[in-house]
Design a protein that fits this description.
Shape: globular
Largest sheet: 7 strands, mixed
Order of helices and strands: HEEEHHEHEHEHEHEHEEHHHHEHEEEHH
Helix content: 40-55%
Structural class: alpha/beta
Distance between the termini: 45 Å
Strand order of the largest sheet: 4-10-9-8-7-5-6
Strand content: 15-25%
Radius of gyration: 22 Å
Bound molecules: 4'-deoxy-4'-aminopyridoxal-5'-phosphate
Length: 405
Amino acid sequence: MDYEAFFGAEIAGLHREGRYRVFTDLERHRGGFPRATHHTGQGEREVTVWCSNDYLGMGQHPKVIDAMHAALDRCGAGAGGTRNISGTNHYHVLLERELADLHDKEAALIFTSGYVSNWAALGTLGAKLPNCVIFSDSENHASMIEGIRSSRAERQIFRHNDPEDLDRKLALIEPGRAKLVAFESVYSMDGDIAPIDEICDVAEKHGALTYLDEVHAVGLYGARGGGISERMGLAHRLDVIEGTLGKAFAVHGGYITASEKLCDFVRSFASGFIFTTSLPPAVAAGAAASIRHLKGSSAERARHQERVARVRKALDAANIPYLPNASHIVPVMVCDPVLCKAISDTLLDEFGIYVQPINYPTVPRGTERLRITPGPLHTDADIDHLVGALSTIWQRIGLRQEAAE
Ligand code: PMP
């Protein structure tokens, strides 16, 4: 077989469909975010980032950076091993305590990313719980889907955010079997929010465990940043709350929080937890500092929501179509992969605005979009510049709101 020809043909297919991914070479600067240097290949220029998941700008916060420096000076670079074999650093232990407290749970377990936490935790629960059936929301993230697949448990997909469909599907399963309902609080691409209370009601009725991914909500919602489950007073009804340390907390890593026994179970059986080097202590220290700060300060959350509202208002005034939702995610709908990429390129090249196009398979074909994530550090002038640039492009290419519907 001509392997190189095969790789080339597959890549050419992505180009033809307009969904070949080009990474934008950025250099973020301490104190400068959302500004960043774009290394273009020919030179460099300053751009404003409008699609970061460092939702609150905590990646630039002095408390986080100082905590990382201090841990680096104290412990050196890496953890030195897996958690089991010399790699449990005291900063990991402190971080797990911080996370258990954040979600008002008995225990927490950290992983090398949010992706790994979903894959490892769901993979282990699905594989080990006797004769388990996992009920998965149809819009669940790839990391949950992969975890469920690798568990080889029976999988039932319920209609997105539809407790009635979940109820019907759960009712068909023999009562004695283990059951787990996996879903998200804020869905990252449409920004819609799950009816967590109703899903918990249904799960409880059928004796199913509940597993909630709060990756796009932790740090951002709830009085202490415990996510939508905290805001709705529902944390106690969720058996597992999963989150990331890489988005609002702006460092790196993932976690689950749950009962002492459930965490101990995953700790003891999940290969994705056991057989990998643990996070660098400086990363754990930075994440803990970020969580601690956001537990005590709502200023960033308030400013974040205010900025999001302002962007929506400006888009409304300019007649730019976006998906309405009750979260912080602003999906500007283009609904064509080639056009979406062209708009993103124009924003970057002509206006110094960076918004990555979102194409299939991240979103369904025909729903390609610019996923805009306003943050507390975007100024009024930044918002005017963004919306002005979008208006210019929209007029230039003759797009109208109706075309995107
Ligand atoms: N869950 C959801 C819903 C996500 O969107 C993501 C990342 N985009 C993850 C999990 C994985 O988190 P991490 O980036 O920390 O690996």
